[in-house]
# Entry
Amino acid sequence: MRENIHFAHANSFPASVYAKLLGRLAERHQVGYLDTIGHDPAYPVTDCWPHLVDETIAYIERHYTGPVVGVGHSLGGFLMFYSAMKRPELFRAIVILDSPLMGPSRSFGIWLAKRLGFIQKVTPGGNSLKRRDNWASVEMVRDYFERKPMFARFDPDCLADYAEHGTEDDGRGSRRLKFRPPVEHAIYATLPHDFPKYRDKLKVPAAFIAGESSDVLKEQDLLFMQKRFGIQVEQHAGGHLFPLERPLETADHVLALIDRLILNAK
# Structure
């Protein structure tokens, strides 16, 4: 059966950058996405992202005729979880890709870091406002980022898609980042610390895929989400950005999980 998949991207990576992964998913299901979360002034970025959850829910309500399978990477996985907790009737299942859904002790650390003003030292957001934001062409964007360590393991097609779809015309014939750095910075600064407060079991079948070499979560975090919410946890080769490092293998893993989650729910 063809499902409606709603995909939600990681912070600073527009959904269209995941074209190779989404193309594989689309071979079996209908796929949709909101390209740049957090850029609509009607849904501002605030602490723990409640308006981004509302933006996600509003998009799903407008663009799909029935419940969706939510698939989200990092930021996007957080939003899939929170949206499914708030509006479970909108979802058939959710698959979360290496999102920082931390257990109680580390979530308290995030709260403390925000309260004491050093949250950007414990997230990747510290340099987001200093990032280069202008290039003469798409080719120059690709040449620039392929030398950056974070992009070194990217699938070549994903790097090309980042250069093209991760940037936009700046109105003067040059390219600038489509996901605006101030929004990226604000999202990192307001990383949710309230994940452990949810007491009810998740009413939607759910799975979590962790990057084998990712440092986003610890073993105790994974055990917490399994015990508290009944989320299935599996691993996939690669780091935190494995969906862009290994897009086809990731898509196949997601497809297998979707089949399993929906079959088990019947």
About this structure: The domain at 4-265 is CATH 3.40.50.1820 (Rossmann fold).
